[in-house]
Design brief:
The structure is a homodimer of 631-residue chains. With 631 residues, chain A is of the alpha/beta class. Helix content of chain A is 39%, strand content 18%. Chain A is built from 22 helices and 23 strands. In chain A, helix 9 packs parallel to helix 10 and helix 17 packs parallel to helix 22.
Chain lengths: 631, 631
C-alpha cells in the first residue's frame, strides 16, 4: 500500500502556544485536504523549545496540555504526530517540580495511539546538554523513567503500529537528539528498526549551524541505510533564543530512503509542507519534489543572518534601525543588511566624527549611505568630548574625610573610551529612540573574542548581527551583498581594502595605524579558542607551533605566522596577550553584551558558557614556553 | 576507638588548580600536625565548580588530573578525602567529549582507597540541574555509568573501608546533591547506611542562599537520625560565578550525630578547620567547638553581600569604586557598603544633578558622602543634556534616496533616558576609569524585575551588589549599616522616609511624584514571579485575588492591596502592566545587565534563565479577568 505522509515544516513561536495551536490546526486541515495519511509536526511545536525557565510555570504547562488535547481531538481521518511537552502530575522531576517529558504524541481519529506503561506519548531518550541545550534541566528522560520503574529501556523503544486504511504500518517515532546517536550508549533508531519499524520518523527542533545540514545528511543517511528502512526528518522554521543567542531554525526537513539516499527535502527557512509516499510492501519512497539546494558560504551565512534578524526584529516590534557608520567594513555590512531587510527608508545611518576621523572614512560612510539610499546624518562628537574632558579634569573632587581636593586625570585609553561611549550611549541610543526602533551592535566575533570594544560604547544595541562571524566572513558577506544581493557596489570597494582602525587617537588613524588584530591570523587563532570541539588553549597553540603544524591546525595561511612573528618570543607574547583578554576582561564585556545571532558551531553567549575567572595558563604551557624561549 | 576527623573548610578559587593545590597541601600538612586521622576537603576543590565551559579544555583537565595525583601522593600518615574532576580517557560523555565525573577521591599513604570497577574514585549519583547548576552538561553520573555497564547502581553505593591505626571504619562518601535526596528516586545516604556506613561524609560546593542553612540542618539532621549514624557536611568558602551571578560559599561545615543533633559547625565564610572525633564503638561524636551562630536577616544579607563583593573586587583587581549618588536609598546603601569594604578613601561618590534634582536629594547625597568621609564631587549634566538635545533636534537627517531632510523629535521618555545615560555612560564610566577601578550598578531586584532603569544609563557597572534584594531589604540593610556596622547615622534618616523618585522629568520629582512601583505591594508581587518554586503568573495572581488569599500568598500586608486598587479593573490593569514588562522588555535589559550578587533562592541572571519572548497570558488568566470584571 502507498502511504502518503506530509512533514509540516511550520514556523513555531516559542512561548506562545496560543499562536502555535491555530497554525497546527490549519496544518492538519490542509494535510487532510491533501489526503495525507500521516502529518508529522516538529518537536515542541506547541510550547516552543528555548523558552528559558518558563517550564517552571504551572499555568504555562496547563495551556500546553490543553492544546495538546485539542490537537489530539482534531486528528480526525488523519494520523498526526507532533512534539510537545507532557506533564505527569503526581510524579516529580529531580528538582522537585512536576515531572515533564520532551514528548512525541501520535493521534488518530481523536485518540492517542502511542505510549507505554500509562504514558500516552513517546518520551525522548537522548537528552542534549551541550551548547544551548538544557534538556536535563527541564525534562525527565525515558532512560531515567525506565530505571525508576524497573523496565529495560530497550523494551520501551518499540515502533507504533498505525492502522492506515485497514493496513498496519510500524513507525519508529523519535525526537531530535535520539537520531544523533554518535555518543550515546543506546542507539535509538537502530533499536526501533530492530524492533520492526518500517519507517523512522525524527521530529526535531534543530537550529541552523554552519555545516550542520551536510553532517546531518551523512549521519541520517547512514542510519537509514544501516536500519534498512526509510527515515524522515521533520524540523520547524522560525527563531528561538536563550537570551544571549538568537538561533534560526532552517527546516530542511528531509526524507532518506532505505539505502540512505536523500530523496527529497524542504526549502531552507520556508514555512512549508514536504510530501512523500512510502510503499509499505518494499519501503520505497516517492516524492513530488526533489532535494532543495543547500547554499554554500557566504550565501548560507547571508540567508541565516537575514532570516534571523528579520524574524527577531518582527518579534520585538522593531521596524526601524539606527546604525553608527564608521566607514569600516563591520558597520558597512550591518547597514547594507538592514537596508536589505527593512528597506533603506527605515534605516538611519549616523556618522559621528571626532578630530581623529579621516576624510577617507567619512567619505566612505557617506558613499555607502548614498548608494543604499538610506537616511543619513553627521553628528560630530568633538564638542561633547571636550566638555566631558573639561568637566572631569576641572571638577574638584574633595575627600570629605581629610578635606583635601584633587582633580582627575584622563589617560589616552580613557579618552578613547569616552569617544566610543559618546557615540553609542549619548547619540546613537537617543537618536534611535527618536527615529523609532532600535540600534545595532556592529561587533564581529574577533572583536568579541578579546573585548576589543568599549563597554556602553560599541558594546550596546539590540542585536549583534555579525557577532558570530569572523572578520574574513564579514568581508565575504560584504562582497556577496554587492555582487549577488544588490548587484552593484553598495559597499564602496575601498572599504574592503582599507586597513581597519578604530580612529580614536593619534596612534589609531587610517594611514598611521590600525587594529592590533591581524585578522588573517588572529581570526583563526581565536576561532580555535571557542569553536574547536576540544577547546584550544595556549598550551595546544605552543605545542603546534613547536611541531610546525600550527597553520594547519588553525586553518590559516602557512606563511603568515612567520611573517608576523620574527621570533618565538614575539609569538608567545602575542598568544599570552590575547589569551589574557579572551579568558579575562573580555568575559566581563560579553556578560553585558547584546544578544548574538548564532551562525557557527559555537557562539559567545549561553551557547559557550563562561564564568568571570582569572586567565589560566596550564603547566604544559609554561614548559613549552621555556623550551621555545631557550631554543 | 576515637577517630579524629578534620573538615577543611578551605577557600577554593574556581579555574585556578594552581592556586588551590598549595592550599590543599598546606591543609594536609596542618591536619597531619593536628594528628587528624582523616581530612575531608570540599567537592571540586581542585578545579572549582562554576567554571563555565572550561571543562571542555583538555589541557585544563590535564592539570586537574596532575594535581589530583599529587594530592593522593601527599596523603602520607593521613587519609584525605577530596572532591575533584575525574577524567576517564577512552570513554565519552554524551556530547562526544572525554568522559568526566564529579568525583570524590579518598587516599591514604599515597594510594587511593576508594572506587569500583576500575574507577579509583566515588562518582556523584544525584546531579543537580536547576538554578545555576549544569552537572549533566559536563559530568556523567554514577547512574548512567551503571546503566551502561549493566550494574545495579544500588550495588555501587558501598561505604569505603578505611583502616585507621589497625581498625576499620566504614565511611559513606558522597557529593553535595547526593545528600539532598528529596526528589531523587534513589536515596544515597540511606543506601550507604544500609550497606554498613558508620559515618556519612558529604563533600559539598554549596553556595549561600538566604534560609538554606536552616533547611540543610533540618534535612541532614533527619538523614543522620534515619540512618542512625553521624553525618558530616564539608563545604568550601570563597566565591564562584556563572557570568551573570556571583555566588558566595559560606562554608558552615557541620557535624550531626546519629540522633540528628547538630553537634558542631564552622563559622560562616571562615577559611578554617572544623574538628571532631567519632567513637567507632557507639558512633558518638565529640568536638572541641560548638555550633556557630547562624545570623538572621538583615545581618545574613549584609554578611553575604560584604563577603561576596569583597572577594569579587579582589578577584577582578578592583581597589577603588565610583558610585553615582542620587540621594536615594539604593545608591546610599551601595556607597556605605563600598566604604565599609574598601575604606572611604577608595570610594568616589558623584552627584550628577540636572534641573530636575531637588535641593533635598542633593543635600542628602552630600550629607551621606560627608558622614562616610568619602571622595565627593558634583558634576552637573545640564549643559551636556542641552547640547545632546540640540544636536539631535537640529542636525538635518537626509534621506539620500529622496533627498529630503528632516530633524528628530525627542519625547519626554527619550529625554529622561538621555539624562540617565549622560550620568552613567558619559560621566561615571569615565570618572571611575580615571579614579582607578570600576563603578557600581545600584539597581535593586524590584527595578531589575521590570526593567525600571535605562540601558547604558543605570543598567551598567561592574557589579549589581543589591541586584538580588528587594526594596524593603535594601531599607533594612541601610538601617543595619547605620545601627550595627557604622553605629552612627551614616545614611541620613531622611533617605529612609523620602518617597523614591527618579527625578528625570517634571512629573518625577521629589514632592510631586515618585516611582510607579508601590514597594510594599510590588516587591512581593514581583518576588512571586521569580522566587516562588512554581513560578507565579498573572493567572495565579488573579485566582488568589478572587479567593481573597492574595496577600497571604504573596506575603505582603493584607490591607495594602485594597488601598492601592479601588477596583478589580485597577488591580488587573496593574498586574498586566508589570507582567508585560517582567516577561517582555525587561528581559532584554537583564540580558545586558551587570552581574548580580546572588542572595535569594532565585536571582536574575543565569540562575533564572530567560529567553526574549513576547509576554504570555494563559487561558485561565483571560477567564478570570472576564469573571472579575463582570462581577
Amino acid at each position: 500500500m502507498q502511504i502518503k505522509i506530509i512533514c509540516g515544516q511550520i514556523e513555531v513561536t516559542p512561548g506562545r502556544p496560543d499562536l502555535n495551536f491555530p497554525k497546527i490546526l490549519a496544518a492538519i486541515d490542509k494535510a487532510r485536504t491533501q489526503k495525507a495519511d500521516i502529518l508529522l509536526l516538529p518537536e515542541m511545536c506547541v510550547p516552543g523549545y528555548l523558552i528559558g525557565d518558563l517550564w517552571e510555570q504551572e499555568t504555562y504547562l496547563d495551556d500546553c496540555e490543553y492544546y495538546n488535547n485539542e490537537i489530539i481531538k482534531a486528528s480526525k481521518d488523519i494520523c498526526v504526530m507532533f512534539g510537545s511537552v507532557a506533564r505527569e502530575v503526581g510524579k516529580l522531576n529531580e528538582d522537585g517540580r512536576v515531572r515533564k517529558y520532551n514528548a512525541a504524541f501520535a493521534a488518530q481519529n481523536g485518540k492517542v495511539v502511542a505510549g507505554y506503561w500509562g504514558h500516552d506519548y513517546v518520551i525522548k531518550t537522548s537528552m542534549p546538554n551541550y551548547r544551548e541545550f538544557d534538556d536535563y534541566r527541564h525534562f525527565y528522560s525515558l532512560t531515567k523513567l525506565c530505571a525508576e520503574e524497573g523496565h529495560d529501556v530497550v523494551d520501551a523503544l518499540q515502533p507504533l503500529s498505525i492502522n492506515i486504511r485497514g493496513e498496519e504500518i510500524r513507525i519508529g517515532l523519535m525526537l531530535c537528539e535520539d537520531g544523533w546517536t554518535e555518543n550515546y550508549y543506546l542507539n535509538v533508531p537502530q533499536t526501533l528498526a530492530k524492533h520492526g519499524a518500517q519507517l523512522l520518523c525524527n521530529l526535531s527542533c534543530s537550529p541552523y549551524t554552519l555545516g550542520k545540514n551536510r553532517k546531518r545528511n551523512r549521519l541520517f543517511s547512514a542510519q537509514a541505510k544501516e536500519a534498512g528502512v526509510p527515515l524522515v526528518y521533520c524540523n520547524n522554521v522560525g527563531i528561538q533564543n536563550n537570551g544571549k543567542n538568537i538561533f534560526t531554525y532552517d527546516g530542511c526537513s528531509s526524507v532518506y530512503n532505505s539505502t540512505g539516499e536523500l530523496i527529497t527535502s524542504a526549502e531552507m527557512y520556508a514555512d512549508t509542507f514536504l510530501e512523500f509516499t512510502v510503499d509499505t510492501t518494499d519501503g520505497s519512497i516517492s516524492a513530488p519534489t526533489t532535494v532543495a539546494a543547500l547554499p554554500e558560504e557566504p550565501e548560507s551565512v547571508y540567508k541565516a543572518i537575514r532570516y534571523g534578524t528579520d524574524k527577531f526584529l518582527k518579534q520585538c516590534g522593531i521596524k526601524k534601525m539606527t546604525i553608527g557608520l564608521s566607514g569600516g567594513i563591520d558597520s558597512a555590512v550591518t547597514a547594507a543588511m538592514y537596508a536589505d531587510i527593512l528597506g533603506p527608508e527605515n534605516v538611519l545611518l549616523l556618522n559621528l566624527p571626532s578630530q581623529y576621523n579621516s576624510e577617507t572614512t567619512k567619505n566612505l560612510a557617506y558613499q555607502l549611505a548614498k548608494s543604499l539610499g538610506a537616511n543619513y546624518g553627521v553628528i560630530p562628537i568633538s564638542q561633547s568630548f571636550e566638555h566631558t574632558v573639561e568637566q572631569l579634569t576641572t571638577t574638584p573632587i574633595t575627600n570629605l574625610g581629610s578635606g583635601q581636593s584633587f582633580t582627575l586625570e584622563l589617560s589616552t585609553l580613557v579618552k578613547e573610551n569616552i569617544q566610543a561611549r559618546d557615540r553609542g550611549a549619548r547619540i546613537i541610543a537617543a537618536a534611535s529612540a527618536a527615529f523609532g526602533g532600535a540600534f545595532s551592535c556592529n561587533s564581529n566575533k574577533a572583536e568579541t573574542s578579546v573585548g576589543y570594544a568599549t563597554f556602553y560604547g560599541d558594546i550596546c544595541g539590540a542585536l549583534a548581527m555579525l557577532g558570530d562571524i569572523w572578520k574574513h566572513q564579514v568581508y565575504a558577506l560584504g562582497k556577496y551583498l554587492n555582487e549577488v544581493i544588490f548587484q552593484r557596489e553598495v559597499i564602496p570597494a575601498e572599504i574592503f581594502t582599507i586597513r581597519p582602525s578604530a580612529e580614536l587617537s593619534d596612534a589609531q588613524t587610517v594611514g598611521k595605524g590600525g587594529d592590533p588584530l591581524v585578522y588573517p591570523y588572529h581570526d583563526y587563532l581565536l576561532r580555535s579558542f571557542i569553536e574547536n570541539w576540544h577547546k584550544t588553549t595556549p598550551a595546544d597553540v605552543l605545542r603546534w607551533y613547536k611541531a610546525g603544524t600550527l597553520a594547519k591546525e588553525l586553518g590559516c595561511e602557512e606563511k603568515i605566522i612567520d611573517e608576523i612573528f620574527p621570533t618565538a618570543a614575539d609569538f608567545i607574547a602575542d598568544v599570552e596577550r590575547w589569551w589574557r583578554l579572551f579568558a579575562g576582561f573580555s568575559v566581563a564585556k560579553r556578560i553585558q553584551a547584546p544578544p548574538i545571532l548564532s551562525i557557527t558551531k559555537r557562539s559567545f553567549g549561553y551557547d559557550h558558557r563562561e564564568a568571570q575567572l582569572t586567565p589560566y595558563f596550564s603547566r604544559e604551557f609554561y614548559q613549552l614556553k621555556e623550551e621555545l624561549l631557550n631554543k
